[in-house]
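## retry 2 of 3
previous attempt timed out at serialization; input unchanged, resubmitting
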Amino acid sequence: MKKITLPLTDEQISTLKAGDSVLLSGTMITGRDAAHKRLFELAEKGEALPVDIKGETIYYVGPAPAKPGYAVGPAGPTSSYRMDKYAPTLLDMGLKGMVGKGARNQDVIDAIVRNHAVYFAAIGGAAALIAKSIKKTEPICYEDLGTESIRRYEVEDFPCIVVIDSEGNNVYETEPKKYCEE
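## retry succeeded, writing output
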């Protein structure tokens, strides 16, 4: 189990390999489809984004309301493919990490390699467990989107797995082959 402090550095990213289990600590931003669409539209127009994404890791999440004593309610990952249209542009603008669940398309994988970035998967179905690692949350922008707004999370030992590393190695492609009969 690797412990990684956010924000990610190029040196850290170089040490991460597809299949590594990691615990992330530090800060990350959040955002889902609607927020990504807005960021993408601004980028296409050449306008400034309301959040500096350079060097950031984004968690694809829309948490439930917080229970007493917690920063957020259950906060499981959203299916990442819903951000695939937008992710290459954001990676080209400096985004370094993404956390979600599920496979990514080839354009995203190519952008990960091109920008020396990484894609992590958080465990679907473990939303209550994940919420325990989120210590603080603050709004950044798009609060009209409710749970889909962009927020900054302070996390401690946030559990995830490297799915696609900076070299394009992808556990969704390599791991099933280990169980196929020849």
